Amino acid sequence: MDKLLEFLPFLIPLVIAELALLAYTLNHILTHKTYKRGNRTLWLVVAIVGMEFIGPILYFTLGKEDV
Fold first, then answer.
1. How far apart are CA 45 and CA 56, in angstroms?
2. Burial of 2 (0-12, 13-18, 19+ CB in 10 A)
3. From CA 17, how far away is CA 29, in angstroms rounded?
4. Which residues contact 11 (CB under 8 A, 6 or more apart)?
5. What pLDDT is recorded for position 2?
6. Roughly how many angstroms between the first and final C-alpha of the chain, as a whole number?
7. Predicted local confidence at residue 41, as pLDDT
8. Beta carbons of 41 and 6 less than 8 angstroms apart
9. What is the Cα–Cα distance from 7 to 21, expressed in whole angstroms?
10. CB-count burial class (<10 Å; 0-12, 13-18, 19+) for 44
11. Residue 32 phi/psi, 5° resolution?
12. Cβ atoms of 60 and 35 closer than 8 Å
């Protein structure tokens, strides 16, 4: 338990950044209609299942349509 408390100051900002990135990604997916690859449902699943930075990063590198 003491080890967890030592890492807590590092974990809290990481969790906040992770949730903020996920929220931004979900907002972008839900407000845009075109994607480079796939469709809205695919990117929602990828972003939510791959929540730990991987899903949002995949969306912004592979799925986001450049306007």
1. 11
2. exposed
3. 18
4. none
5. 75
6. 49
7. 92
8. no
9. 21
10. middle
11. -115, 150
12. no
| Cα(10)–Cα(62) distance, integer angstroms | 29
In the numeric block, which tokens belong to residue 65? 């349509």
In whole angstroms, give the CA distance from residue 22 to residue 30. 12
Query: Is the pTM for the entire model greater than 0.85?
Result: no
CA–CA separation, 14 and 18 (whole Å): 6
Residue partners of 63: CB distance under 8 A and separation at least 6: 35, 36, 37, 38, 42, 43, 46
Model confidence pLDDT, tens digit, residues 11-66: 899 889 888 888 988 999 899 888 888 899 998 988 888 767 788 888 878 777 76
What 3-state DSSP class applies to 50? coil
Dihedral of CA 31/28/51/42: which sign?
positive
